[in-house]
Structures are given as C-alpha cells and as structure tokens.
Design goal:
CATH architecture of the largest domain: Beta Barrel
Number of helices: 0
Helix content: under 10%
Strand order of the largest sheet: 4-5-6-8-7
Radius of gyration: 15 Å
CATH class of the largest domain: Mainly Beta
Strand content: 35-45%
Number of domains: 2
Number of strands: 8
CATH topology of the largest domain: OB fold (Dihydrolipoamide Acetyltransferase, E2P)
Order of helices and strands: EEEEEEEE
Largest sheet: 5 strands, mixed, barrel
Distance between the termini: 37 Å
C-alpha cells in the first residue's frame, strides 16, 4: 500500500496519522490527493501528525451499520481539528464533547486498526 512517495499510516496498518502539506501555499490536507485542494499545486510532502487535537464535532452511533460493528455500539464518531492544521474524522471516547483537547491512540474496530481519540490528560 505504500511506495517510495508514501508514508505508511493507519490505513495501511501502521500506528500513524499522515497528512500532506503543499510546498507552494503551505495548506495541509488529510485526504491524500495528487494535488493541493487549496491551490492546485502538485508538490506535496507527507508528514506524520503527533496525534493531538481538539474535538470539532461529536456524535454517538447507536445502530450498527454492519454485524461486525454491533459489539461496539454505542460508539462515538468525531471530527478532530489536528494540532497540525487539518481536520479528520475518527472514533473516540463516548464522553467527548466539542472543544475537548484529545490525544490519539490506535485500537481495533471491526478488525481494522483505527485512530481512537481520548481526552488529553492534564
């Protein structure tokens, strides 16, 4: 899943969150593309995120979409503003609310390794 131009992240089984940064305008994006979504330039560098962020939105899921997900119900889906300046969707602790400072760890969800955010300890 990775090649010479790609850093392995959780989508490939590694405990990492990877984002792209545009050399032309400095914009950061989580979804990997061959171009910058802000300016269209194609000179993108990949970086590993530190796993820190702030909850932008949170919702609890009470109905599993698949039989494999039933064991996890209820589970939280979050939008997290990463400290590096991009927004991502992830799983997280059920008691998180908007504005909470969070830190990622990695857990298994329906057999796949996924980022899971918990409230940052003071």
């Amino acid at each position: 899943m990775s090649d010479a131009n790609t850093t392995l992240d959780w989508t490939g089984g590694a405990e990492a969150i990877v984002y792209q940064q545009c050399a032309a305008c400095g914009a950061r994006q989580y979804f990997h593309r061959s171009f910058c979504a802000a300016c269209g330039a194609t000179d993108l560098a990949e970086h590993r995120a530190g796993g820190e962020g702030t909850v932008y939105a949170a919702t609890l899921v009470f109905r599993a979409a698949t039989p494999e997900a039933r064991e996890h119900v209820p589970f939280a889906i979050l939008l997290v503003d990463a400290a590096e300046g991009f927004r991502m969707m992830a799983h997280g602790a059920n008691d998180l609310t908007i504005g909470d400072k969070v830190t990622a760890r990695f857990v298994r969800f329906t057999g796949r390794l996924v980022p899971y955010f918990e409230r940052t300890k003071p």
